[in-house]
Write a structure and sequence with these properties.
This protein is of the alpha+beta class. It contains two helices and two strands, in the order αβαβ. Strand 1, helix 2 and strand 2 form a beta-alpha-beta unit.
Length: 71
């Protein structure tokens, strides 16, 4: 759901969250999430050219993932 702002949605329930763009930012956000007293949302922006596994087509089950590393 690319247009969904999960951080704003979490904040509407008085929860915290943040958007991260890098591994270093994620590590810091994860530490904040672990130490939070409530649920915490982390939205991770991923470049559309990056291969992130498992990749699942919309409407498919998790058992139907795309394996781009198959020989």
């Amino acid at each position: 759901i690319p247009s969904m702002n999960f951080v704003s949605f979490a904040e509407s329930f008085n929860l915290k969250g943040e958007v991260v763009d890098s591994l270093d930012d994620f590590k810091a956000a994860f530490e904040r999430a672990v130490s939070a007293e409530k649920s915490y949302v982390i939205t991770v922006r991923i470049n559309t050219d990056d291969v992130v596994s498992p990749m699942v087509a919309p409407g498919s089950s998790l058992t139907e993932y795309v394996n781009l590393n198959a020989d």
